[in-house]
Amino acid sequence: MTNAVEQESIKVIVFQLADKEYAIPVSHVQGIEKLMHITRVPKTVNYVKGVINLRGVVTPIVDLRERFELPISKHEETTRIIIISLEDMEVGFVVDSANDVIDIPANAIEPQPEVVGSLEEEFISGVAKVGKRLLILLHLEKVLNPLK
Amino acid sequence: MEVNQYLEMFIEESKEHLQACSEHLLELEKSPDDLAIVGEIFRSAHTLKGMSATMGFEDLADLTHKMENVLDAIRNEKIHVTPEILDVVFESVDHLEEMVMDIASGGDGKRDVSSTVAQLKRIELGEEAIVVPEVAATEVVEPAVESALEYDSFEQTVISQSSEQGFHAYEISVKLRDDCLLKAARVFMVFEILEKDGDVIKASPSVEKLEDEQFDQQFYVAFVTKESAEDMQKKLMKVSEVEEVAVTLINQKAFSEKEYEPQQEVAVTVAEVATPAAAPPQAEPVVKPKKAASSAKADKSQHAPVGNKTIRVNIERLDILMNLFEELVIDRGRLQSISTEVNHGELNETVERMSRVMGDLQTIILTMRMVPVETVFNRFPKMIRQLSRDLNKKINLEIIGAETELDRTVIDEIGDPLVHLIRNSVDHGIENPTARRAKGKPEEGTVVLRAYHSGNYVFIEIEDDGAGINREKVLAKAIAKGVVTLEQSYAMSDRQINELILASGFSTADVISDVSGRGVGLDVVKTTIESLGGNISIESTQDVGSKFSIQLPLTLSIISVMLVEIEKEIYAIPLSSIIETSIIRSSEIMNAHNQKVIDFRGKVVPLVFLEEIFEVPRKEQQDEEFHSVVIVRKGEKLAGLVVDSFIGQQEIVLKSLGNYLTNIFAISGATILGNGKVALIVDCNALIK
Q: Where do Low complexity bias regions lie (chain B) (predicted)?
């Protein structure tokens, strides 16, 4: 395992979605919440599940499984909402579980291999190999973009 | 000098002075021979010059200086006021405003004003080749300050009582240096020192005037303290820019000899009521100062009424206070629902009491955020002047009710729509003088801008005595533009036709002018006002005039709603758009052109099934015999919103859905309910076509 202390590295939150692990830089994460009541908002795209009351702030919720067109699963005990802040938006992502906070050395990040070929491809900014784990780094702007 | 500390104060005061300049210039234009007005303008300009020079804004100071020279020449009757001169002076004021705005937004206030400066110079020299001497002292408008203070019986009592308790009563005269700038700041510092060591009984001129810098260089204060006269003098001399301090003991024997005159000319205000014991509750001996005749004419309430004690609070703090209060409102909702569930006597009582206190608190917080519409209105006189020049029309603007107060959030939004409507009235409404004469109207057109409160709303009206709306022309245009069909037009009322001009893609002016745009405007006005929860209506009679009325809610952040339930989902419908609720039978529902309608008090009202609009998932389709209907309105049109059940009325805090979810159909926002869940607010305007 590489020694991260000496080199430049980014701290990321690692979460699980279906059988893969994804990562978001900690700087964009406001917090991780347990699943709570989501109020449905009518006439929006299917992956917007609705809004929650996050300590007085009405926050929209996106189900990442549906966003990436992965098979829909029932919400479990481990299901979490990761609150993301990007520019002037705050959005919660529903994920299967939030696993870890780790440092990824900058040189461990590689561009997206072209073979993946699923819908989620366009939302990926790169992959990182840390030990035996393969982490997929999300391109947040693209994940949140098309809803305008 | 610590510049940054004063920058904010400087910007605020500069704006005030410039506003005063514009107002007085408009006055002057009406009565060019009134030299007292020139004096007023001169004073404002002079103060501005001094302040900007100290703050290091040379361009600003320089231009003000040039302008001041011209004003001085006018004041000394070396130059006569002509419209041309006023134009140049107006232009200078415009430049000055731009500079101040630039400084306020962090710039250095530099601006190329050479042509204006040259014009000012030409005026100054052209008519009279005399170099105007620099005038240091400002014109004294206030009545000469008396050398000694006079005391009424109440103040005499305070003084004698305090001396019995071992206090000394002094009369202190403070003289500021001639070149003192930011006099108000010095006054404030002096008072701060005084109030630390004792109590100020009285000041001359009054504290309000001192704060407004309405005094020359010297002021007097009556003061009780335990400190010695010498110490006080030394302390006060430490305030910079103070030239002279004289502390003398008040001669109490003189009291008995001097009869108390109830009608004093000197403005008197108790600054800080002396000792609690000696302060009878009715004691607010505020005698309104008699303003000099000239300023009484320019009474457009530029100065707040004397006698109100105010402090300036950063608006951000008020916003924070409001946010915290909103949190409380949500918790109150929660407590109320808990107490209904638990049904415990004492709990119920406490919750009820708390609700009442919070109601009062809410009123106070909301009124704290109120700002007079004057802050929006005061830019219009100048705009009208400019417009009437550009369009060659004669227009008189009357402003009524500028003191009407509105929430700051509404104030911020209402400016542009009003500018648009006024431009519209001036451009399309008021005819040119020849046409007016032909119609037998006075050449000068009148635009009335009126604001007033009524119920929970504020109304703003823009009324002109111009051409009014030409029904045929509007209809022809609307049909040509495809806004309505010919068939529809037959059934339209006058009011509906008038309101067509608010539809998008509409411009009836034969010649498109740059004043009121290309018809993209009025529909934007309508949208803005509706987004503020208000609405706009038009009354018009051809050749007599038109009236645009805008109805606005007093506040935007807390509203009353009716909560309704559809399946398991709760929605909030703003009470302001609800006419009434009713329960109807299935058999009463009729069909008309694929639209379900009901007969509601003789009117055919279309039904909107919220369940369908909001695509509420339902486990099983049920056919109920009775339907709960909320009748809502948008302008004159009605619609019945069908829901499962009514929950009740509640005050809620309006929250936005954030920047990610925008333009959700028929949802105007969200709120947090007592149980902590989010409920969506129905936008009735979107549901009625």
A: 284-296
Q: Does B611 touch chain A (CB under 8 A)?
A: no
- Res. B629: pLDDT tops 90: yes
Q: How many domains, in total, are found in chain B?
A: 5
Q: What is the pLDDT of residue B148?
A: 54
Q: Where are the alpha helices (DSSP H) in B198-314?
A: 207-211, 229-237, 253-257, 293-297
Judged by CB atoms within 8 Å, which residues 42-81 of A form the interface with B? 42-44, 48, 50-53, 56-60
Question: Can you tell me the distance from the alpha carbon of B429 to that of B545, in angstroms, rounded to the nearest whole number?
Answer: 7
Tell me which chain B residues have a C-beta less than 8 angstroms from the C-beta of A51.
Answer: 657, 661, 670, 678, 680
Distance of CA B507 to CAs B372, B428, B471, B541, Å? 33, 10, 14, 19
B94: domain CATH number is 1.20.120.160
More confident residue, A75 or B253: A75
Q: What strands, in cross-sheet order, belong to the sheet with B569-574? A: B645-653, B558-566, B569-574, B678-682, B667-672
Spatial CB neighbours of B447, under 8 Å, sequence gap ≥ 6: B384, B395, B396, B397, B398, B422, B425, B426, B429, B430, B462, B463, B464
User: How far is the C-alpha of B40 from the C-alpha of B141, rounded, in Å?
Assistant: 9
Contacts with A85 (C-beta within 8 Å, 6 or more apart), sequence order: A28, A29, A30
Whole-angstrom distance, CA of residue B534 vs CA of residue B668: 13
Residues B450 and B485 both lie in one domain: yes
Full residue range of the structural domain in which residue B513 is found: 372-553
d(CA B538, CA B531): 18
- Domain range for A105: 9-142
Task: Answer for the pair B569, A39: CB distance below 8 angstroms, yes or no.
Answer: yes
- Residue contacts between A and B (CB atoms, under 8 Å): 73
pLDDT grade, residue A1 (50/70/90)? Answer: very low
Encode pLDDT of B525-543 as tens digits. 888 887 777 888 888 888 8
B532 and B628 within one domain: no
Q: Which residues 315-334 of B are in CB contact (within 8 Å) with A?
A: 326-327, 330
> Per residue in B303-338, pLDDT tens?
444 455 777 778 778 878 887 887 788 788 888 888
Give the pLDDT of residue B366: 77
For the domain that residue A104 is a member of, what is the CATH number?
Answer: 2.40.50.180
Q: What is the pLDDT of residues B549-558, one digit of tens each?
A: 998 877 667 7
Closest residue in B to A39 (Cα) is B678
What pTM, to 2 d.p., does this model score?
A: 0.52
- pLDDT, tens only, B238-297: 777 777 788 877 766 555 544 444 444 433 333 333 334 433 444 344 444 433 333 333
Give the integer Cα–Cα distance in Å for B27 and B385.
12
CATH number at residue B497: 3.30.565.10
* ipTM of predicted assembly, 2 dp: 0.85
Same structural domain for residues B406 and B532?
yes
Which residue carries 């020299």 as its tokens? B125
Please say if the pLDDT value at position B628 is more than 60. Answer: yes
Cis peptide before B205 (omega within 30 of 0): yes
Sequence-distant (6+) residues with CB within 8 A of B520 are B504, B505
Note whether B394 and B365 are same-domain residues. Answer: no
Q: Chain B closest CA to A120's CA: distance in Å?
A: 20
pLDDT classification of B37: cutoffs 50, 70, 90:
confident
Rg, Å, chain A Cα set: 15
**Residue B208: Cβ-neighbour burial (10 angstroms; 0-12, 13-18, 19+):** buried
Is pLDDT of B391 > 70?
yes
Same domain, B491 and B414: yes
Amino acid at B385: R
- What is the nearest CA distance from B595 to chain A, expressed in angstroms? 21
Pull the structure tokens for residue B586: 């299935």
